[in-house]
Amino acid sequence: MKNVLVTGGLGLLGKHLTNFLDKKKFKIFVLDKSKYQRKGLLISKNVYFINGNFQNKQLVKNILKNKKINVVFHLGGSTQVSKSLNNPYKTYKNNVIGTLNLLECIRKINNDILFIYSSTPQNKNYNLYNPYFLSKFCSDFLCASYSKIYNLKTIVVKCVNLYGPGDLNVNRIIPYTILSSLKKKQIKLQSSGKLVTGYIYIDDVVKAYFLIMKKNLNKVGEKHLVYNVSSKYNISVLDLVNLILRLMKKNELKQRAIKQINYKPKQQKLNDSKIKNLGWKQKVSLRKGLIKTIIWYEKVFKF
Questions:
Q1: Cβ(143)–Cβ(137) under 8 Å?
Q2: pLDDT at res. 254
């Protein structure tokens, strides 16, 4: 039985990945600073919850050493683009120093630990100097550096927008739209809604992460790899919101008249050939995934 550490384990990906690994008979240690988002995390004899912060170096060292960790899924950190503008220091501390802390602990304790880091794709539609994006890309380079110089086994996974049951981050467009509709509140977009990006259901993402781990856990050879997890379903924010509203039998939003100078959103496609070569395929359609997600929110939240 392999021992796995999942940081940010109470987030959307963390909970679903933990539940999946539990079914595969792994022993999972969930590290998260929150105490209040455990809805959706299965209770199991092989799942251990540790309330703490991965910026606590001594805590991380103790977990890696005492729990004999074989794999680290680093999923924790600051995730909101807009919030990073208001608090850049916190964003860089969480996303850069936090990642550095984990890599340094692995370097000192056991560089055979497989380190899998959840990053974000580069997109020409985004301001790459935004603290969120820049912090993620800095961590990408940290992973490469610790691999090349200190021989750590590091993998960076860049995934398009994921969604699904259990997402309690109401700032994301899908949970925000569903919950606003359930509460009969007006939906307010922060932009014209023209930006086109990919969306992928959480089950497909979890299977991608598991496959990446499985194929690289005992692999000999290249120490640093980058995988893109793309989607067949690319859609504008406005069209996505209106699709959700149609599925919920609600009135659609109209296009907002926002003047944007010299801004032409372009669809960004990731080269996902590497993950597909491992045998991964996207199986859940956008419509089916949204229906499953809506049903979950309707069952859990009563207004």
A1: no
A2: 60
Tokens 């067949």 locate to 232
Of 203, 234, 233, 225, residue with least CA distance to 277: 225
Sheet strands (E) in 33-87: 47-51, 71-74
Residue with tokens 């890696």: 64
User: Distance between CA 287 and CA 301 in Å, rounded?
Assistant: 21
Residue 257 pLDDT = 38
Length of the chain in residues, anyone?
Answer: 303
Top-level CATH class of 3-167+198-232+264-282? alpha beta
Token look-up 């509203």 returns 245
pTM: 0.91
Which of 30, 209, 17 shows the shortest CA–CA distance to 116?
A: 209
Torsion of CA 170, 241, 229, 264, to 10 degrees: -110
Q: Is the dihedral of CA 145, 115, 59, 131 positive or negative?
A: positive
Give the pLDDT confidence of 107-138 residue by residue, as tens digits.
Answer: 999 999 999 999 988 766 566 778 888 899 99
As a whole number of angstroms, the distance between CA 171 and CA 182 comes to 15
* 73 bridge partner residues: 6, 116
- β-pair type (114-119, 71-74): parallel
Give the domain ranges of the chain. Answer: 3-167+198-232+264-282
CA distance to 178, 187, 238, 296, per residue, from 254 (Å): 17, 11, 8, 27
